[in-house]
Amino acid sequence: MAGLALEATPQIFAVAVFAVGALMLVSAVTPAFGDRVRALAGSVSPLLIDLSHFAASILGFLLLILSAGLWRRRRGAYWAALAALAAGAVFSLLKGLDWEEAAALMLVAALLAPCKPAFNRRSRLLEPLRPGWLALLICSVAATLWLGFFAWRDVAYTDELWWSFLIDREASAFLRAVAVLSILSLCMAAMSLLSAPGAGRHRPATPAECARAVQVIAEADHAPPEAWLAALGDKALLFSPSGRSFLAYRVRGRRWIAMGEPTGLATERRDLLWAFAELADSWGGSPVFYSIGDGLLGDVATLGLAVRKVGETAVVPTESFILDGKGRQNLRTAVNRAEREGFSFEVLPPGSASALGAELRAISDAWLDHHNGDEKAFSMGRFDPAYLDLTPLAVVRQTTPSEVEGGPPSVRLVAFANLLPGAGRPREAAVDLMRYHPDAPHGTMVYLFIRCIQWARDNGFSEFDLGLAPLAGLEDRRLAPVFARVGALVFEEGGALYGFQGLRTYKAKFFPEWRPRYIAAPTFTPLPLALLDVALLTSGGWPGLLGVRKRLRRGA
């Protein structure tokens, strides 16, 4: 019972402090009792009365904000609320002998004072409000101002009202309260809507942290292939207390977006999910888990998160992947044609990319120029020899006869892809960065994928992941969630934005199993905005997402 009371204490006092803060605002914008003001004027300077009125309106607004901190168990909000309540009681007396208001403030302060253990979270200066609290704050201030204008509706407006300090001109104090409350509300709204809580403190991982993540992957009993993306250094890393598990994430706006599933020890997975959710919550953010599979749904449900499907990933069972049979004729033709044209396939061990740096760079740059594209981030790899050195590298070379009779044949690199090996059961590998030279013969990448799948089978991997088909598999049905219906519409009609259907059709030729991928977030988090944040992180911001750089290069 005592534990339940301790849990409820922050919420109870948040409501109480919000109530007395609203009371102070109402008192600040409505006329005071005339007899009390006259009694006070005999012993207190009119200037002090007016300044106390002004200070009381600011403290009332401050209490509204501090109530949000109390709800979130902020230690700093606890101390600030005590100080504001005590100061508010003093100013309530000085502005018009409002002893009832002062008594209410001191009563709340007296009840709050012994409850310090309930407020155990660290605090930050000027913490932005969540959307719900911001809406409540703005509605309260707006209602208070409306009440003030109604109370002073019979007073004719003049410019002198702003500067008058006469006791019988309380309307001037009301106007100044209107101004300061409006300005403070706008400032708080701008800070809350535009800030990214925690982004400055949770920056991309350092080289040392990336090396530590690579070591965790090497020793993990559960590591999805996309765990290697942590080594790019474009995401922050949250390690478990043992240091043997981690989660990669980025902060964008109010959303803390984890890329994929936790990597490391399976026994630490749920605790790491809770740690990430609590870390985001402690900064006033919302935890979002992007591109998670069926195996994590039970854990995110335990966290109380809402889940929506965002697409399907193409996973090829390597043992059943064959080129025989009528249905595989196109694949056999691709292989036979490629080898007739002098293609050869090889998977190089980790550490081989640096030696081929110039050739790989030439192919990558030519591919980007041909597609008017930019390097991606967050959920996809980028060209970086140090990153490519970490895992096996698949390359396709083409041998052509010499133009000089009797001369040696010419061998050139025409395509490459880095392969990401996972850990755990089933053993899975995935393809990440894929690049080919624009003048490579048609079917080069089909040949590359076929050989990669066969390589995975020969090296003990039971599954080979060809990557995500975004928005695939969403249902446009009457009872489907709006998120799914809109996603299905974009998948069907959004070819001008992205080749959703074309990408799925291309991957389907390798006969994969389509496995759903999800995004999970708190119920109050708009999932479409979270998915937009993922797209912005992957594309490098709005210019990359809208293709601004493409158009500029095309124009040049």
Helix-strand sequence: HHHHHHHHEEEHEHEHEHHEEEHEHHEHHH
Largest sheet: 11 strands, mixed
Taken as a percent bin, the fraction of beta residues is 15-25%
From the spread of the alpha carbons, the general shape counts as: elongated
Q: Number of DSSP strands? A: 11
Mind telling me the C-alpha Rg?
32 Å
List the quaternary state of the chains.
Answer: single chain
**Poorly predicted residue ranges:** 165-169
If you had to describe this structure to a student in words, what would you say it looks like?
With 556 residues, the chain is of the alpha+beta class. The chain has helices spanning 2-29, 34-41, 46-71, 75-96, 99-112, 131-151, 170-194, 207-219, 269-282, 297-302, 329-340, 357-370, 385-388, 444-458, 482-493, 500-508, 527-539, 542-546, 548-555; strands at 236-239, 246-252, 255-259, 286-292, 306-317, 343-348, 393-400, 410-421, 428-436, 463-470, 513-521. It has an eleven-stranded mixed beta sheet with strand order 1-2-3-4-11-5-10-9-8-7-6, sandwiched between helices. Strand 8 and strand 9 (428-436) form a beta hairpin. Helix 11 (329-340) crosses helix 14. The model is unreliable at 165-169 (pLDDT under 50).
